[in-house]
Structure formats: C-alpha cells, structure tokens
Amino acid sequence: MSSRIILIGPPGAGKGTQAARLSEALGVPAISTGDIFRANVKGETELGKLAKRYMDAGEYVPDEVTNSMVADRLAQDDAAEGFLLDGYPRTSAQVDELDRILAAEDKAIEHVVELTADTDEVVARLLARAQTEGRSDDSEDVIRHRLDVYEEQTQPLTDIYRSRGLLRQVDGLGEVNDITERILSTIR
Q1: Which residue of 57, 96, 149, 166 is 20 to 30 Å from 155, comparing CA positions?
Q2: In the annotation, is 129 catalytic?
Q3: Is 131 exposed, middle or buried (0-12, 13-18, 19+ CB in 10 A)?
Q4: Is 53 labeled as catalytic in the residue annotation?
Q5: 125 labelled as ligand-binding?
Q6: Does the annotation count 21 as an active-site position?
Q7: What is the CATH number of domain 3-186?
C-alpha cells in the first residue's frame, strides 16, 4: 500500500514521535526537512553549502533551496512507494511546488494529518523539555510566541488541504500508542 502523507502540528504535539512510529507501521520513510538540511550540510552537497550560508546567518533557507532538497529526497528509491513528510510544506508556495514535484511522477498527497493539542498542555510539555535539555531560551513567552507563529503560518495550509478533502485532525494528547492508532485508523 502506498502512502504519501504530510504530518503537521504545533511544536510539542508529538510529530517526531509519531513520524517514527508511522514510518515503521506503514513501511515508508519519515522525511523531516531538518534532517534533509543536516544531511546535505554534512555531505557538503551544493545545496547543503547554499543552505549552510543562510543557516549560519540565522536566516530562513529560501523556498527554492528547500524545494530542491525535498525534490531530491523524494526521488530516492526508498520514497518510491510513499513517504511521510514532517516540516514540509510550510507555505502555500511550497504546497504548490510539492504538487508539481509529485505530479511529474503522476502522484499526489493522499492524507494530511494535523495533530491537535491544547495550547496549555503543549506549553507545559515544551517547558518540561526545555528544562530537561537545558534550553534556558525557551521561556513560556517564547514558546507561546512560537505557537502563535505556527498557527498563523499553518492556517492557510490547513485551509488548502481541508478544501481538497485531505485534512484529518487527530487529537495529539494521550498515550503514544493510542495516538498512533488514532492516526492509522484515520488514514486507512
């Protein structure tokens, strides 16, 4: 069974945990833009060198560089039968580019799963994670700002995918196994 899925949700909703579990359950790679950036920078690819210049300057990597890296990753053999994207697309322009990338292979996104979570619960999770990881810069104000930015930037994407009938909202709170089962039952 092929699966082409996008996983979205606010910071702290458990996307990374669920991406790994879904990847195993569905037999498709979990593809994170952060991982793609790190692999290209470490491998000193041309795109990696270009991305590193932006990252070192503390700037966002431009869409055209991100899109090229994602296109390259999706062309790899392990993604031929499907994939789970985490962290891409982030803008409506990236949605359009992903559509073009997949259409060239006569493919399309099948499901967009949005993990939802109560804001106060997510803030508590992120504060606990910041303390555990010694991230003193992650104060409650900073975390709440990141959540506001996420909401503002993600709303247009959820609207696009909802209008296509692809958006599935899943409660991201609870036991990890239960959340995984909720997601799987929603996309099967």
Answers
A1: 57
A2: yes
A3: exposed
A4: no
A5: no
A6: no
A7: 3.40.50.300
- 174 annotated among ligand-binding-site residues: yes
Tell me whether strands 3-8 and 82-86 are parallel, antiparallel or unpaired.
Answer: parallel
Q: What is the pLDDT along the chain (188 residues), one digit of tens a residue?
A: 569 999 999 988 999 999 999 999 999 999 998 888 888 999 999 989 988 888 888 777 888 999 999 999 999 999 999 999 998 998 899 999 999 999 999 999 999 999 999 999 999 999 998 888 887 777 899 889 889 888 888 889 999 999 999 999 999 999 999 999 999 999 98
Residue 134, beta-bridge partner list: none
Q: Tell me whether residue 90 is annotated as binding.
A: yes
Task: Judge whether 175 is annotated as a binding position.
Answer: no
Q: Rounded to an integer, what distance in angstroms lies between the CA atom of residue 10 and that of residue 151?
A: 8
Catalytic residue among 15, 21, 73, 182: 15
Domain ranges of the chain: 3-186
